[in-house]
Amino acid sequence: MVKLQSKYVCQKCAYESPRWFGKCPNCNEWNTFVEELSKKISSRKAGHSTTIKATPLSEVEIEDNHRISTNIDEFDRVLGGGIVPGSVILLGGDPGVGKSTIMMQLASHLKDSIVLYLSGEESAKQIKLRAERLHFTTHDTFLVLAETNLDVIFEVIERSEPDVIIVDSIQTMYRPQLESSPGSVGQVRESAAFFTRYAKEKSIPIFLIGHVTKEGVIAGPKVIEHMVDTVLQFEGEQHYAYRILRAMKNRYGSTNEIGVFEMRETGLEEVKNPSDVFLAERSFGTSGSSVVSSIEGTRPILIEVQALVTPTNYGVPQRATTGIDYRRLSLLIAVLEKRLGIMLGQYDIFVNIAGGIRVDEPAVDLGIAASIISSQRDVPIDSQTVLIGEIGLGGEIRSVYQIEKRIQEANKIGFHRVILPKNNMKGITKIDGIELSGVERIDDAIKLLLK
Fold first, then answer.
1. pLDDT at position 318, please?
2. How far is 231 from 372, CA to CA, in rounded Å?
3. Ramachandran angles phi, psi of 326, nearest 5°
4. Quick check: 417 and 315 in contact, CB under 8 A?
5. What is the radius of gyration, based on Cα positions, of the chain?
6. What angle do CA 9, 12, 15 make, to 5 degrees?
7. Count of CB atoms within 10 A of residue 5's CB?
8. Distance between CA atoms of 10 and 17, rounded to whole angstroms?
9. What DSSP string runs through 295-327?
10. Could you say which of 108, 118, 340, 427 is the most buried, measured as most Cβ atoms within 10 Å of its Cβ?
11. What is the predicted pLDDT for the residue at 42?
């Protein structure tokens, strides 16, 4: 009889061990080891002759591969101008955010290409019903296969010769040669390697949809993200209709670009001008509200910052944020208390970025600080003013990049005044119809805003 050999694999980092550990010695996570059966695969003997040789870089020929347009401008923007042939793109996001929807929408737009949609979670009938419900255009080149066995999938791919492959999802795929169950580290890693090899050999793009853990990261070992060319994150709050497509890794473009979509009954629709959308329901004449300018990639976006400061009913004041980093709020509160002498220890402070978008750029610091003081004093900020600036620990207003783009966006939306760092005033081109006010410190900005 053949003696079966087993190994224990960490489901977080893919560390392998011949025995079980309670705590992974590699990533220090607890209870992540799962037993898997292992099979030894014969390899080439040492010294075996081969005809493969290295090629000098000067002799490598570069093909002029044009990018494939998805006909979805926001998606093309995030990818860097379109799909690169032979690239592998991993798309992650929370359950229900719209990963399958945007992939089906992409497939329906690629009418000139043969698209093979591999579904491991839904049947072909379910996919057809979803396409009809969302009014997606189906055509003869939109092929659907509900299968998870990679051996069967390989045969179908060879017969159909698709131009684009969509895998929904990579965690459901498996190789029958491996004893571990689908979704385990070994199966996910082998499945990703299979599609990556095929994409490079045939020079066709492949999209992989990945599940997300409760921590918000793509499930499976980190090696998957290293194997693919592009990692896209589809973000969106559960109670908001807007979705943000963000590139976390991109070998063929910038990782700073974002695409904005709105979820509707007919699927995801592009948001051409996010500033208008995020400011559409803004309140006027209310304390604690300000407008800031954030740069996402090459695109300036105007968003509303809301703050609510109320006397606390507990011994320890509450601090809650939505859309910004909690630690950044704590830092700004400490600066306001130290540099302006405003005691906020007896107040609960809540800060929200309206519209469900998340902002990590420090250029919105001035707007957050002004909204907090406005709410604490119950004095509204001028609704025609945009605030731009990073706040340092000394209370200084530090300069930000791409200031002219931010000012032009404010002027296009119809604002009449911009308060910005004084250092950014040097060499700036003034625009008719908008007043520019440079400030050096946080107290100077507050005097201008809350007279």
1. 93
2. 36
3. -60, -40
4. no
5. 26
6. 40
7. 10
8. 8
9. EETTEEEEEEEEEEEEE-SSSS--EEEESS-HH
10. 118
11. 47
Using alpha carbons, select from 141, 143, 209, 204 the residue that is nearest to residue 173: 209
Calpha distance 181→178 (Å, rounded): 8
Tokens for 145, please give them: 């296969």
Q: What is the pLDDT of residue 1?
A: 45
Element (H, E) at 449: helix 442-449
Three-class secondary structure of residue 100 per DSSP: helix
Q: Return the ∠ at Cα 26 (arms to 21 and 32), rounded to 5°.
A: 45
Mutual orientation of helices 365-377 and 326-340 as an angle, nearest 10°? 60
**What's the confidence (pLDDT) of residue 145?**
95
Rounded CA separation 20/437 (Å): 64
Model pTM? Answer: 0.77
Interatomic CA distance for residues 368 and 276, integer angstroms: 20
Nearest to 253 by CA among 224, 227, 235, 231: 231
Closest CA to 229 of 262, 204, 259, 211: 204
Q: How far is CA 248 from CA 82, 90, 253, in A?
A: 16, 10, 11
Q: How many helices (H) and strands (E) does the chain have?
A: 11, 21
Task: State how far the Cα of 439 lies from the Cα of 441, in Å rounded to an integer.
Answer: 6
Residues of the chain short of pLDDT 50, as ranges, are 1-2, 41-46
Please report, in angstroms and rounded to a whole number, the separation of the first and last CA atoms in the chain: 88
pLDDT at position 435 is 93
CA dihedral of residues 324, 330, 334, 336 (deg, nearest 10): 30
Question: In 94-141, at which residue ranges do the beta strands (DSSP E only) sit?
Answer: 115-119
Nearest Cα residue to 212 out of 74, 361, 88, 98: 98
The confidence score (pLDDT) of residue 32 equals 84
Query: What's the CA gap between 205 and 275, in Å, rounded?
Result: 33
CA angle 56–61–62, rounded 5-degree value: 125
Contact 410, 384 (CB under 8 A): no
